[in-house]
Amino acid sequence: MKIKDVKVIVCSPGRNFVTVKIVTDEGLYGIGDGTVNGRELSVVSYLQDHVAPLLIGRDPAQIEDIWQYLYRGAYWRRGPITMAAISAVDMALWDIKAKAANMPLYQLLGGASRQKVMIYSHAQGMSIEEAVDAVGKKRDEGHVAIRCQVGIPGLPAVYGTGKGAKQDRGGMVEALPHEEVWSTSRYMLHIPKLFARLRDVYGDDLHLLHDTHHRLTPIEAARLGKDLEPFRLFWLEDPVPAELQEGYRLIRQHTTTPIALGEVFNTIWDARLLMEEQLIDYIRATSVHAGGVTGLRRIFDFASVYHIRTACHGPMDVSPVAMGTNAHIDLWVPNFGIQEFSGYTPLMHEVFPHSWVQEGGYIHPGEAPGHGVDIDEALASKHPYQRAYLPVNRLEDGTLWHW
Ligand code: GCO
Ligand code: MG
């Protein structure tokens, strides 16, 4: 079997997605997600102009050799654009291999380690009471794990409550970056009140998660982690930008609140020290950004040595293709933690028909051969790319801050 064609399909059924389709000379094809929110066309060019010519004529079964060829052979290694392109190709090749073997991807990885995959959904509100109600609605839908974000008094909408929060209606981003305003001091005072109220209303059984979205310093994160300990969060996510991995030592010295990190990581090197020193509890790497199935398997096996569990990133900008791939990995991986699943719009489900099914607080990848996700190219072509950016964030004095 040889690779005959490599197509890159960009569509925007509510938000932009980059999908690669690899077609073999025996008629089998596989698809992969290469979406990098706000920089999608960079991945399109990387795939079309630099990767596709290297794949034509190759044996699609040589997944590892192609991965190494695209990683080491590029000379310029790592980074979100390069790794999203490699991820998309890798996902498509595993899709082909599992279809050729006539089995669902999770079987090819080693079979199911659990009956179903626990997910967490998103709930938010501008006020604590709105957020509490939103959590209640998700709990009533059967969710057992819910990420909760809340507006901060004195600030306009912040991450997770502003324009980005309306992910379930698509359009998380805008044609120019929306500017948010941030105050760490106001945030630090307010978040413990949110979780005190949530525990009062819903008790201790519900898994509650919170995403700080890279906005604190290590000592501030240590303080917040301590303040949240009485509310026993499932995790505190992305408390501090993680370029300085050893910075997380300071947080670990002060709090037992579990830490989740890594949705922006694109290789194992981004998390090596964090994992070796057990500075985190969940690794958030996901199939579309961390090297596909091949890259993720390597990261997750390394994590398992250090008691770290998986928690694939899975908001709407992770396309249903990557969500399907994640679900197979989630069903197989022994050190599974949880899968983020903020949901998709009906149109996105139509553009990307899939065998994965969500029931309440769980998903299952299904039994279709491959990763079980396809793309309706005709429908996708009716929703062309529209330039869009993630928001940016500034402190009240105008300082550009982490979004
Ligand atoms: C999450 C993430 C998202 C990101 C988005 C950026 O935990 O789901 O933080 O909300 O903001 O994926 O593209
Ligand atoms: Mg996050």
Which small molecules are bound? D-gluconic acid, magnesium ion
The pLDDT mean sits at 96
Low-confidence stretches: none
* CATH level 3 topology of the largest domain: TIM Barrel
Strand content: 15-25%
Element-level helix/strand string: EEEHHHHEHEEHEHEHEHEHEHEHEEHEE
Q: Mind telling me the CATH class of the largest domain?
A: Alpha Beta
Q: Can you tell me the number of structural domains? A: 2
Name given to the CATH homologous superfamily of the largest domain: Enolase-like C-terminal domain
Helix content range: 25-40%
Principal-axes shape call: globular
Q: How far apart, in Å, are the first and last alpha carbons? A: 45 Å
Q: Characterize the largest beta sheet: strand count, sense, and whether it forms a barrel.
A: 10 strands, mixed
Rg: 20 Å
CATH architecture of the largest domain: Alpha-Beta Barrel
Number of helical stretches of at least 4 residues: 13
Number of strands: 16
Structural account:
By secondary structure, the protein is α/β, with parallel strands linked by helices. The protein folds into two domains: 3-104, Enolase-like, domain 1 (2-Layer Sandwich); 108-368, Alpha-Beta Barrel (TIM Barrel). It contains 13 helices and 16 strands. The radius of gyration is 20 Å and the shape is globular. The structure holds D-gluconic acid and magnesium ion. Residues 128-258 form the Mandelate racemase/muconate lactonizing enzyme C-terminal domain. One of its GO terms (molecular function) is mannonate dehydratase activity. Pfam families: MR_MLE_C (PF13378), MR_MLE_N (PF02746).
